[in-house]
Amino acid sequence: MVRPLLKIVMEKHLQPQINDDEIAENFKHTVIQELKYRFKLEWNPSSHVSARQIASFLDPRYKDLEHEVADAKEEIRKQVKSLLDDISKNNSDIQIQTSETKNDSSALAFLYGDKHNCNTDDTTVQLQNYLAEPQLRFDLDALEWWKTRAMKYPLMVVLAVKYLGIPATSVSSERCFSTAGNIVTAKRSCLAPETSFRVLRGRPVLPGCPGDTQPLVPFM
């Protein structure tokens, strides 16, 4: 949802106003140019589909891609179709079960013998059905939407989990590296890796100390 929000900010809050002075106009123009450059918002024939664009498409609140130009929309949908085909080839038998279907004991289900098996070859059908879905309001929960439709879109939900789970910012990882840089310094270069991990995560330095209740998993 990064790209749609940036487009909204630029179109509704950074456009020049009648009462803006020269400083305000220059500021807004500079911010718009920096946002376009930083997030590669401009589309041209040599552009490649980014993870942000795929995530925007998989977000049911912005799936119509109103913030993208026509050529970009077509390329994004082609890329998603290609990803779905790859998932279908690598997962020849996907069976999705939810809390609602695990204990399904209705009479019709018994008569038809429906075990809720999902055909993994209908990538085109799943994509077309998703495109036909009404777009959600911006204030609704996209993850909840996918959770309730995991049975209907077993392949697309795999992509949704993958791309919608990407953090929108790198602040948390940068903060982690910054903390590690303060721990492993030139004067502490002999720290054992496990000790560094424990200090970085705020865990007891000695295994078995109070509070050391979970296994230590090194960062990858």
Treating each run of at least 4 consecutive H or I residues as one helix, how many helices? 11
Q: What is the chain-wise order of helices and strands? A: HHHHHHHHHHH
How would a crystallographer describe the biggest sheet? none
- Computed structural class: mainly alpha
Number of strands: 0
Q: What's the SSE blueprint?
A:
Blueprint: H1 2-12, H2 22-38, H3 51-58, H4 70-90, H5 99-102, H6 107-112, H7 123-132, H8 142-148, H9 156-164, H10 171-183, H11 193-200
Helix pairs in contact: 3-9
Quick gist of this model?
The protein is mainly α and 220 residues long. The protein contains 11 helices and no strands.
Task: Describe this entry's structure for a reader.
The model is unreliable at 95-102 and 114-118 (pLDDT under 50). This protein has 11 helices and no strands. With 220 residues, it is an all-alpha fold. The chain has helices spanning 2-12, 22-38, 51-58, 70-90, 99-102, 107-112, 123-132, 142-148, 156-164, 171-183, 193-200.
Highlighted features:
220 residues, 0% strand
